[in-house]
């Protein structure tokens, strides 16, 4: 098995992972700090017979990816900041119509045009609640270049397995840092492809079989009658005003995620076995937390890290369990406390939840985190 060692940016590793996952279509609009993803997709896709198209705006970028996915392609789009806001309506469309698509959001300082070249983590809640209505969402976030590669592949697999949009939520830190990573051979990578109907079988686009909550998905143009609408629909895919049908559809959309949390949710724990204090952090800021914990441990302070890799659905069960054994929790993130609110919600007051953050485009340093830790804990 041939393995390659490369020195890559996180954005470059994202494209490497997407190509190995089977991406054959990319559409988007270049925006800092995600632009390298578009540039390298434009370079790499034609070499394998895939398609790259730069659209006129961010809305068209995700719309084209959704359309390509309907024809059977594994499709991705990437953006940042205000571009992610513009994609929200079509994220909801893909969720309701159950169209697999990967959306990469390399977070930057905001709101509005904000700080295009500076890091931020202010899109956490937007990743879950950005589009209107209740809807399922899977959102995963890496803290390294290698994990960006791995999670891009995982994003495609989850999108195909559950027929849902999946958000890869990186940030300017992980997107632009460079690290040496080992690229596995294609034969070593587990790839999941959507389940398709076979010609000759009776097909309804949103009918589930044998208790499976995820319908089979026919490619447009492959010989199956298939209607797609952003309206509530029945098993045929055609619009339905029936409140009963709407309830059945929404319950199934939520259940296909909620009933598979053990498969979807991943996380990392560092030094939590004997921890008396816990830091919760994610993405690029988790690297700061790991350095701070190493220093604090050297001083004899028993502190550990819980890092959600899957941020949506949130790993409620795991955070709750840890909150029952530690004295205090400190949440570190580059915003005004978005994950802090989620931690407070799930631990039911088991211990105090403190906060350390920034939203000015600067990274949080280990020294700042240690100082805040000692100040509040």
Description:
The structure is a single chain. Helix content is 38%, strand content 20%. By secondary structure, the chain is α/β, with parallel strands linked by helices. The strands form three sheets. It has a seven-stranded mixed beta sheet. Helix 1 (10-21) packs across helix 2 and helix 1 (10-21) runs parallel beside helix 7 (145-162). It is globular, with a radius of gyration of 21 Å. The mean pLDDT is 96.
Output the keywords:
single chain; 377 residues; alpha/beta; 5-stranded mixed sheet; 14 strands
Helix percent band: 25-40%
CA-CA gap between termini:
49 Å
Largest sheet: 7 strands, mixed
For the largest beta sheet, what order do the strands appear in spatially?
A: 3-2-4-5-7-6-12
Going by helix content, strand content and strand pairing, the class is alpha/beta
SSE ordering: EHEHEHEHHEHEHEHEHHEEHEEHEHEH
Number of strands: 14
Binned strand content: 15-25%
Note the total helix count: 14
Q: What is the average per-residue confidence, as pLDDT, rounded to a whole number?
A: 96
Low-confidence stretches: none
| Chain oligomer state | single chain
Instruction: Indicate the radius of gyration in whole angstroms.
Output: 21 Å
Query: Rough shape?
Result: globular
Quick summary of this structure?
By secondary structure, the chain is an alpha/beta fold. Helix content is 38%, strand content 20%.
Topology, pairings included?
Elements: E1 4-9, H1 10-21, E2 23-28, H2 35-44, E3 51-54, H3 58-70, E4 74-79, H4 82-86, H5 88-97, E5 101-107, H6 124-129, E6 138-140, H7 145-162, E7 165-171, H8 172-176, E8 178-183, H9 243-258, H10 261-264, E9 267-270, E10 277-281, H11 283-298, E11 303-308, E12 310-312, H12 316-323, E13 328-333, H13 338-347, E14 353-357, H14 366-376
Parallel strand pairs: 2-3, 2-4, 4-5, 5-7, 6-7, 10-11, 10-13, 13-14
Antiparallel strand pairs: 1-8, 6-12, 9-11
Helix pairs in contact: 1-2, 1-7, 3-5, 11-14
């Amino acid at each position: 098995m041939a393995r390659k060692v490369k020195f890559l940016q996180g954005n470059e590793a994202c494209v490497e992972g997407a190509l190995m996952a089977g991406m054959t279509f990319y559409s988007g609009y270049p925006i800092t700090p995600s632009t390298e993803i578009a540039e390298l997709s434009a370079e790499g896709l034609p070499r394998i017979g895939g398609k790259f198209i730069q659209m006129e705006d961010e809305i068209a970028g995700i719309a084209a990816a959704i359309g390509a996915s309907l024809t059977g392609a594994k499709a991705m789009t990437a953006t940042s900041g205000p571009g992610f806001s513009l994609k929200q309506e079509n994220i909801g469309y893909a969720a309701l119509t159950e169209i697999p698509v990967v959306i990469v959001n390399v977070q930057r300082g905001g709101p509005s045009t904000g700080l295009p070249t500076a890091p931020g983590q202010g899109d956490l809640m937007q990743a879950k609640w950005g589009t209107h209505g209740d809807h399922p969402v899977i959102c995963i976030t890496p803290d390294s270049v290698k994990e960006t590669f791995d999670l891009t592949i995982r994003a495609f697999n989850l999108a195909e397995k559950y027929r849902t949009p999946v958000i890869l939520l990186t940030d300017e830190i992980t997107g632009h840092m460079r690290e040496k990573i080992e690229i596995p051979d294609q034969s070593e990578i587990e790839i999941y492809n959507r389940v398709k109907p076979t010609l000759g079988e009776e097909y309804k686009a949103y009918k589930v079989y044998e208790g499976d909550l995820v319908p089979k998905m026919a490619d447009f143009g492959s010989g199956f009658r298939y209607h797609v609408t952003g309206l509530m629909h029945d098993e045929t895919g055609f619009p339905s005003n029936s409140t009963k049908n709407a309830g059945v559809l929404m319950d199934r959309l939520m259940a296909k995620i909620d009933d598979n949390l053990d498969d979807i949710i991943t996380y990392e724990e560092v030094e939590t076995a004997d921890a008396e204090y816990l830091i919760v952090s994610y993405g690029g800021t988790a690297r700061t937390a790991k350095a701070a914990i190493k220093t604090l441990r050297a001083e004899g302070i028993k502190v550990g890290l819980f890092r959600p890799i899957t941020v949506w659905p949130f790993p409620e069960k795991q955070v709750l369990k840890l909150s029952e054994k530690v004295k205090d929790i400190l949440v570190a993130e580059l915003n005004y406390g978005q994950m802090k609110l989620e931690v407070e919600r799930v631990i039911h007051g088991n211990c105090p939840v403190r906060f350390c953050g920034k939203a000015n485009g600067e990274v949080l340093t280990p020294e700042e985190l240690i100082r805040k830790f000692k100040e509040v804990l």
